[in-house]
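Posting for a labmate who doesn't have an account.
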Amino acid sequence: MGRKSLLSMINSATKPEKDYAEEFFNAFTKHIEKENTKERHPSFNITPSGLKCLRAIVYRLSGVKTDGFTPSYSLCGITESGSNRHEVNQGYIDSIETFNFIDVGKYVKEHKLPLEVGEKKDFESPYETHLYDRKNHISFLVDGIIEFSGKTFILEIKTMVQTKFWKIKDDVPDEYKLQATCYSLLLGIPQVMFLFEDRNILTKKCLVYTPTEEEKNNMRDLIASCNDYVNKKIVPAKPVVDRKVCSYCDYKKTCSKSVKAYSSEEDEKYSE
């Protein structure tokens, strides 16, 4: 046995238990972050859940590279937990005999909506379907379409921390109304059924949101405005948004430089 091997055995034998725990913890959490850190490419599409900032939408549509983001292991867990809770709740809803959980892809085809149905991947939830509006450069994923009591609703599930959950009273929070309006406009379904869930103790609350015609017209204008900015290669002024929107934005560094958005490779050197 060599000297290095002997020293290694001695050090291992005298190593405190807390050091093993720390070593395990660091290896485990770093692996989670590594597995969830991938180069994020622009989707070149508007997403209804990301309508809070016009400038970010234009960057996305223009093909501007994202800043790059390494999520913390806890944020990874929150995201995974939300996805898991979505599927569990969807399964319960689907098993209610008086409810009809409609296949979104079939609904689109039967109603001849101008939407493209994405191919279902094996690892994705069986209850969700990717949809694309190629004309307006929109991609989205609804949590479901349900029928009960003679009415049809778009289903939207939101899981959140307890403090945020208990702030919801008799009205859908403003931050979700744009997304609901976009879904309603694209699917031609007047009402959205929100299922809110407290991530801590899994208490639930339901609210129905019905976008007005004025809200739908404003949504049409917003979508048209996004595409117009891109076609003219103009970056809109930075809007006033909640600081949390900026905190998790893929273009935070780019935006801070007030750079110009381009889609071509040769124009990646942004000018002030």
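Reply:
Got it, the structure tokens are right above this. The chain is about 45% helix and 15% strand.
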